[in-house]
């Protein structure tokens, strides 16, 4: 793949990763609830979900899903239900996400689960990749070039959210966030519920 084409691909993936949404809210919650390790685990597992959708697109299955109304509707409703469930959990969490003597830390296993499922629960990723990544794929493209596209999408997404988790878990930032855990959980919950409603409404 020519360098100029790869740079265009990297820019597209970076813009997609950096746009605020449920992924950012999920990484924020796990970093707030458990510190650096759960935040980084959530970021890396989210990248695996993104890589899965990127692979589907590169090998042509993303377009098939996008044009199969029943399959895509099932993904849409399932994704919206999961985001709504996370939103309700955030609203009910109150100050429970903050690390203190009596708080239960966010387990890395839960962070890994939420990271993958938030990526897979977002049907916009399929449409995003079908609309944009497919422009970089040709019928005669070598398998190595397809792997490079998937790896680029995965690494940029993972790299961005790992940086977010590391920044949020910094010793100068995390205590400030934890002191405002109640409000952050409320805002995150409302955001996730709003995104779930938006997905359902198309």
Automatic annotation (TrEMBL):
Domain of life: Bacteria
Molecular function via GO: amino acid transmembrane transporter activity
Location (main, coarse): membrane
Pfam families for this protein: LysE (PF01810)
Entry's localization field: Cell membrane
Signal peptide positions (record): 1-25
Spans traversing the lipid bilayer: 41-62, 69-88, 116-137, 158-177, 183-201
Keywords: Cell membrane, Membrane, Signal, Transmembrane, Transmembrane helix
Coiled coil spans: none
Taxonomy of the source species: Bacteria, Pseudomonadati, Pseudomonadota, Gammaproteobacteria, Oceanospirillales
A single cellular component GO annotation: plasma membrane
UniProt protein name: Lysine exporter protein (LYSE/YGGA)
Protein's UniProt keywords contain Membrane: yes
InterPro entries: LeuE-type (IPR001123)
Membrane-related topology note: Multi-pass membrane protein
């Amino acid at each position: 793949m020519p360098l100029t084409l790869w740079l265009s691909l990297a820019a597209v993936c970076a813009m997609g990763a950096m746009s605020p949404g449920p992924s950012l809210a999920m990484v924020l919650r796990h970093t707030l609830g458990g510190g650096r390790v759960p935040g980084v685990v959530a970021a890396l597992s989210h990248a695996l979900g993104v890589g899965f959708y990127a692979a589907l697109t590169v090998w042509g299955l993303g377009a098939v899903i996008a044009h199969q109304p029943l399959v895509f509707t099932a993904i849409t409703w399932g994704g919206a239900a999961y985001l709504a469930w996370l939103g309700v959990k955030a609203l009910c969490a109150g100050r429970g996400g903050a690390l203190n003597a009596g708080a239960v830390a966010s387990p890395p296993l839960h962070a890994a689960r939420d990271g993958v499922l938030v990526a897979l629960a977002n049907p916009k990723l399929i449409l995003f990749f079908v609309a944009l990544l497919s422009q970089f794929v040709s019928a005669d493209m070598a398998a190595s070039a397809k792997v490079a596209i998937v790896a680029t999408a995965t690494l940029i997404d993972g790299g961005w959210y790992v940086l977010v988790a590391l920044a949020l878990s910094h010793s100068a930032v995390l205590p400030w966030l934890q002191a405002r855990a109640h409000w952050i959980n409320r805002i995150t919950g409302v955001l996730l519920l709003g995104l779930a409603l938006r997905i359902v409404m198309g």
